[in-house]
Write a structure and sequence with these properties.
This protein is an alpha/beta fold and 379 residues long. It has helices spanning 22-41, 47-78, 104-134, 138-158, 166-179, 182-210, 213-242, 248-251, 265-276, 295-298, 330-340, 359-378; strands spanning 5-11, 14-19, 83-89, 92-97, 258-259, 281-285, 288-293, 323-324, 344-349, 352-358. The longest helix has 32 residues, at 47-78.
Length: 379
């Protein structure tokens, strides 16, 4: 199975990855540059030249996006904020912050670092394009001019005061600083994001009707993404506020399903996964947690080999993203759950298993909290 994300390399200690959706963006960008943009800028060249220019231009833009996100990541790290890596996807790139900024100051500087980086690199491309033009390197000058323009647009677009764009995060930091209330700041900034997203979708729809189907569709999709991300930010702010003071030990399942590393995969599937309807089973031996297994690990083995393959050979080791300490906050655990892909965490005290926690535990807690609050308001 093709992985959803592919790790390319590490830069300054950050893993650079591409999401599978990035390939759609890469194809769209190369085709647009090689069939429309560069032929309009430099007519009467052959198709292979345009294609080469399109590929170089696309690679330069992706490098620029990495530089933009790297600026976010480096500044975040300087404030002690853990970063999961940098991922390129269909709408650009993202530096994956594993926790929210703790102060308005850190939010401001992390947010503004990206646009500053884009402005710096746009200036560098602009100067290089002028030098290339003076030297008679017309093709190189055209590519560099494109990169100067797109980095300028990238900086200006991201400075729009609409959460989750960088400008929206800057706005949130200023409101947070003035009010001292992160939840209120997030609500206001994300409301701007929702409005901006609707505007983008509306103008994209108008472009489609006007005949610019490809560009209009792209703008409509970006608007939809911004709107959904803003809505998610509001929900996350509400959830974070509701979980204040709640610890992992308050939510965890203290008697999770476990299995021995010595059983075979067919026994695991029949007697544990199916019988208990579990996708996350901790492998234990002598009260120590060795790792976890689930459908993802089982599917790596052909079914005909299940009866002779032992669980110890397929179990996945615990990492920062798949385990949590009992005394950790519920907010910290929730962020891990939302990013680790398996939606479960082992609650470990050293190597000893204390329980497990999943999104279902959070959903149940928040649901009960809402019901009690509604009952109290009626009374």
């Amino acid at each position: 199975m093709f992985p959803a994300r592919i790790t390319l390399f590490s830069l300054l200690g950050f893993r650079i990855r591409i999401d599978i959706s990035w390939f759609f963006l890469a194809f769209y960008l190369v085709m647009t540059l090689s069939t429309r943009y560069f032929p309009a800028a430099l007519p009467h060249l052959d198709g292979r030249t345009y294609l080469a220019m399109g590929i170089v231009g696309a690679l330069g833009l992706f490098a620029s996006i990495i530089f933009h996100e790297l600026a976010h990541a480096v500044v975040a790290r300087s404030f002690g904020m853990p970063i999961g890596g940098i991922t390129l996807f269909i709408f650009g790139g993202v530096a994956e912050l594993r926790q929210e900024p703790k102060t308005p100051r850190s939010e401001f500087w992390v947010a503004i670092a990206g646009p500053i980086a884009s402005i710096v690199i746009a200036s560098a491309f602009f100067g290089s394009a002028n030098l290339a033009a003076r030297a008679g390197l017309t093709l190189l000058a055209a590519v560099l001019s494109f990169l100067a323009m797109t980095n300028t647009v990238l900086a200006l677009f991201n400075l729009t005061p609409a959460f989750p764009l960088d400008g929206g995060r800057i706005l949130r930091s200023l409101i947070w600083w003035r009010t001292g209330n992160l939840r209120r700041a997030t609500r206001i900034a994300s409301s701007f994001g929702s409005v901006f997203g609707v505007v983008l979708m509306a103008t994209g729809f108008v472009q489609i009707i006007s005949g610019n189907g490809l560009g209009g569709t792209w703008q409509l999709l970006i608007g939809l993404f911004v709107t959904m991300a803003a809505s998610q930010a509001r929900r996350q702010a509400d959830t974070t506020d509701d979980l204040q003071g709640v610890m992992v030990s308050d939510l965890m399942d203290g008697a999770p399903v476990t299995c021995s590393p010595a059983i075979t995969v067919d026994v695991l599937v029949k007697d544990y996964i199916y019988r208990h309807n579990q996708k996350f089973i901790v492998v234990t031996e002598d009260d120590r947690a060795l790792g976890y297994v689930g459908p993802e690990q089982v599917n790596r083995i052909a079914e005909r080999d299940w009866h002779e393959t032992f669980v110890r050979t397929i179990s996945a080791p615990f990492t920062h993203d798949t385990s949590v300490f009992p005394g950790a906050t519920a907010v910290e655990a929730l962020r891990k759950l939302q990013s680790n892909g398996i939606r479960h965490l082992a609650v470990l005290d050293g190597s000893f298993l204390r329980g497990t926690v999943s999104e279902a535990n959070f959903s149940n807690y928040l649901s009960v909290r809402e019901e009690l609050a509604a009952s109290a308001s009626r009374n």
